[in-house]
Write a structure and sequence with these properties.
8 strands; three-stranded antiparallel beta sheet; single chain; Aminopeptidase
């Protein structure tokens, strides 16, 4: 269901390729995760339970900020302190690299992530943006 070109559709037999739409995202994500796990089986050790992504913030108004881009914890390992450890690690790196603050963007509708970040002491500063072609709202 991934798109090709600029909204072009392609059909051949039972195969239909079309532009992905908002309702397709949950199934697309499932396929992506399962295929990723299969493709990298034996390459990445199975003991990985989570992933963290962070870097210098690229927002025009946050030049002296470090950004926590993403935390993904395997659902089987959530509620064990892994996410909190990732946030603490990110904060330590921000201090080490001499940034003034850590900023986090989260999808406005992702109440689970927002509650986690609030529990970790973060709050929305009121900044918002629309992400991607589906214009999904994020808050910082």
């Amino acid at each position: 269901m991934s798109g090709i070109g600029h909204g072009d559709n392609y059909e051949k037999g039972d195969c239909v390729i079309r532009k992905m739409e908002l309702p397709d995202i949950p199934r697309y994500t499932e396929i992506y995760v399962f295929c990723w796990r299969d493709a990298y089986k034996g390459i990445f050790p199975n003991e990985y339970k989570a992933m963290l992504t962070m870097c210098a913030c690229k927002d025009d108004d946050k030049h002296e900020s470090f950004e926590l881009l993403a935390i993904y914890v395997d659902p089987f390992f959530q509620k064990q302190g892994i996410g909190a450890s990732f946030v603490e690690f990110c904060e330590q790196k921000a201090v080490e690299y001499r940034y003034r603050e850590v900023c986090i963007w989260a999808f406005e509708a992702n109440t689970k992530a927002r509650a986690f970040y609030e529990k970790m002491g973060y709050s929305s500063g009121g900044a918002t943006r629309a992400v991607g072609r589906f214009a999904i709202a994020e808050v910082r």
